[in-house]
Specification:
By secondary structure, the chain is α+β, with helices and mostly antiparallel strands. The chain has one domain. The protein has 2 helices and 6 strands; from the N terminus they run βββββααβ. Strand 2 and strand 3 form a beta hairpin.
C-alpha cells in the first residue's frame, strides 16, 4: 500500500519521495495512514480515524473506485472520518 499511497507533508526534512505521512486504501475500503519512524527509511501504518480534507478524501475515493471497494470505503468514511480541515492536499 505504501507504493500506491498519497504523500502528505513533503517539506524539509521530508520530500515527495519520502513524505512524513502517507494515506492509502486497503482492498476492503479501510483508510490507512503511515507515518515515518525513520525518515527516508521506514513507516508505521495504522487504520486512520479522524479528520481528512476534501481533496485528500476525493483522491482516496478515486483509489477505492479503482480497487472496486468504493461502497466499503464510504462505510469507513461514515464511521471514522470527519470531513474538512487538515490533513489535505
Amino acid at each position: 500500500m505504501l507504493d500506491h499511497g498519497i504523500g502528505v507533508i513533503t517539506a524539509a526534512p521530508y520530500s515527495a519521495l519520502f513524505p512524513k505521512r502517507l494515506f492509502a486504501v486497503d482492498d476492503d475500503g479501510t483508510i490507512y495512514a503511515a507515518e515515518t519512524t525513520n525518515p527516508g527509511q521506514s513507516y508505521h501504518g495504522f487504520p486512520y480515524h479522524g479528520r481528512l480534507g476534501k481533496r485528500l478524501l476525493a483522491a482516496l475515493r478515486a483509489i477505492a473506485r479503482e480497487k472496486d471497494c468504493e461502497t466499503a470505503f464510504d462505510r469507513w468514511v461514515k464511521r471514522h472520518i470527519t470531513i474538512g480541515g487538515p490533513p489535505d492536499l
